[in-house]
Amino acid sequence: MSVSSSNMPQREPVLRIGIILPIDKLKKVTISFTDSALYEIETEKQLNPSSEAPDTLDVSVNDVDMIIRKTVDVFDEHGITIHDVPAGRGFHWEKTIDVTAPGNVYITNQKDYLQVTNEVPLEQYLACVAVSEMSARCPSAFLEAQIMAARSWLLANRGENHPDLQIDVCNDDCCQRYQGMNNFSEDARQSTEACRGQVLTIKGDICDARYSKSCGGITEAGANVWPQKDLDYLVSIEDGEPAFCGPGFISEANLPEYLGSVDEHRSYFRWDFEILQEELTDHMNKIHSLNGKAVLGIENEKRGPSGRIISCDLVYLDSNNQQQSKHLESEYTIRQTLSPSFLFSSAFKMNLKNVQKGIPGSFSFEGKGWGHGAGMCQIGALGMALNGSTAESILTHYFPKAKLTRIYSS
Ligand SMILES: [Zn+2]
Ligand SMILES: [Zn+2]
């Protein structure tokens, strides 16, 4: 969905970013300060700093609500570190990390669970997103393209993913990856400044500019990934010949230095994955509340132009040895169903292995790409930037129907 031109901000907005959410079910959080003299805390309860580390506080759900304000209005290296923040909720790279947040932090009680919200101006948020999604070592043309795509996405989707939490976005892959100042670099700040206020627009509206890690060679059509949204301008394109996201532009040995700090170091342009019958059946039963005995395979695959399966039927034997099928309607559901750690993409060929009496002993996948594949291919954009492309030519390549517009400069 795109935002009408009347909703375009005339100046830089301030954002509320959910760092810890009620779904994390946390009752206690530890925070610390790189320099506590720069902060004041508004709260009605008495807080007791840890005796070993006086700049560290344990905050329980009974202590809130509180506002921690930065008393100086500068975007510097100082922040509030929130410990053990979930990253990659529900994906194969899920872990917890410490996040050092710029700006102000609100800690509130949401139905007996903690919510931690970071309040920062949009441009500071974007500088942090650029180096959370990918590494600060990426060339500035990549960082600028990433920042303009992230700014457009944010303004087109602000508040939509978490309507009940009074936040604009969360910190995670569900919205855009935001790890505060963790990977912050001067390059990220300069790249943000260089494209301040610039967004992708189409017919006067801000584009819902999507992106994912690797398209695998051809990007997916937006309409195949989000059929309920009007994203026809996210057209499928061939991502270079040879592919900008392939080993011809970035060797697998060099890729890790450019990836985000929470990303696994492995191959994403082409990948293999294998799962045992029992593990897949258990997982399918759990995800879809079924009572299957064995998975037999998938049928009726419908594929998009990138090779991603956008719907299919998962065929299985039920507990009475009757053949049944479960319809999987989106690339997201397919990836969620076929691996407990979330499959890298739905562009795969599934092979049945060790079949005995019609029942496979395991399933192997030959896949390509990482993520939904629509819009900007991040590794492809990196390949283009390393090859001398400008931020503008990268965005024109991935969003051929859009143009760049500066909507605010103050
Ligand atoms: Zn979110
Ligand atoms: Zn690509």
List the helices and strands and how they pair.
Elements: E1 14-20, E2 28-33, E3 39-42, E4 56-60, E5 66-70, E6 80-87, E7 95-101, E8 104-110, E9 113-121, H1 122-133, H2 140-157, E10 169-170, H3 186-194, E11 198-202, E12 205-206, E13 211-212, H4 222-225, E14 270-276, H5 277-288, E15 292-303, E16 309-318, E17 323-328, H6 331-338, E18 348-353, E19 362-368, E20 376-377, H7 378-386, H8 391-398, E21 403-406
Helix pairs in contact: 1-2, 1-3, 2-3, 2-7, 2-8
Bound molecules: zinc ion (2 copies).
Summed up:
With 410 residues, the chain is α+β, with helices and mostly antiparallel strands.
Mind explaining what this structure looks like?
It is a single chain. The protein is an alpha+beta fold. It has a domain at 270-368. It contains eight helices and 21 strands. The protein has a six-stranded mixed beta sheet with strand order 3-5-8-9-1-10. Strands 4-2-6-7 form a four-stranded antiparallel beta sheet, with no helix packed on it. A three-stranded antiparallel beta sheet has the order 12-11-21. Strand 11 (198-202) and strand 12 form a beta hairpin. Helix 2 (140-157) crosses helix 3 (186-194) and helix 2 (140-157) packs across helix 8 (391-398). The protein is globular and about 70 Å long. It binds zinc ion (ZN) (2 copies). Residues 214-215, 239, 243-245, 377, 380 line the site of one zinc ion.
